Amino acid sequence: MSDPVVPAAERSRWNWKRTNQTQRTLLDAALELFIENGYAGTSVEDIVQRSNLSIGSLYHHFGNKAGLYLALWQEWVKDQENLVSTAIEDLQSRGEAGTVPLFMVGARAYLEGCWNHRSRGSVFFAQDGPPGFELRLRNGRYEWLRQVTVLTHASDDPLGRLTVSVMMAIVAEGAQEVVTSGSRADADEIMDATLLMIERVGASDTGDAVADTPAEASAS
Q: Where are the alpha helices (DSSP H) in the chain?
């Protein structure tokens, strides 16, 4: 008796589902190993063994170990960007239009994401990525700078761009410290200090005085 004929549309959906499952399995295995051993300390053979898939599957879907790392990094960036944009848009919906308050609430969301997913984040803050990753990271920051400038209605003049760039650099340094914090209390202290620095930089742009503690909007 011959096998039943499966419609082409159903075969296509099944193939895509298998493809997605294979990619997810490889990504999860690679992430576990990068967290445990670092990028340099993980081999393609390690990933294949952990995933229980073939080396051909890895090369087919990601090309090499660097391709897996970059795919994981792109997922991290997308997740963090979603947290930031959601927080900013929520504050905007409540009537806030100031650049610094909007930036601060976005920074808080970013730092919270770093703490909540610190194991994953540690992979990308370890300066242990594939060759050329630092350049890609720098280019990605320029693109994110453009997006944040639009989201927070920052002034598109030299001083405005410089201010946002400095505030983003503060967030990046704070994020690295948050990811490596030993406790939630330590992470909170770093977040508060980071937001206070941002508030002071923002005040220097507007000429306003700042308080000794970050604005309440950043914690909402």
A: 8-37, 44-51, 55-62, 65-93, 99-116, 118-125, 133-151, 158-179, 184-206
Which CATH number is associated with domain 1-63? 1.10.10.60
Domain positions in the chain: 1-63, 72-219
CA distances from 117 to 10, 76, 110, 148, 180 (A): 36, 9, 11, 22, 11
Burial (CB count <10 Å: 0-12, 13-18, 19+), residue 67: middle
Model confidence pLDDT, tens digit, residues 158-171:
888 888 889 999 99
Q: How far is CA 58 from CA 18, 46, 219, in A?
A: 14, 12, 42
Amino acid residing at 123: V
Report the alpha-carbon distance of residue 79 to residue 76 in Å, rounded.
5
Give the 3-state secondary structure of residue 219. helix
pLDDT of residue 205: 58
The pLDDT tens digits for 36-93 are 999 999 999 999 999 999 999 999 999 999 999 999 999 999 999 999 999 999 999 9
The residue assigned the tokens 């193939």 is 15
Cα torsion at 122, 128, 134, 136 (round to 10°)? -70
Q: How far apart are the first and last CA of the chain?
A: 65
**Contact of 190 with 174, CB cutoff 8 Å:** yes
How many Cα atoms occupy the beta-carbon half-sphere of 62 within 13 Å?
25
pTM: 0.81
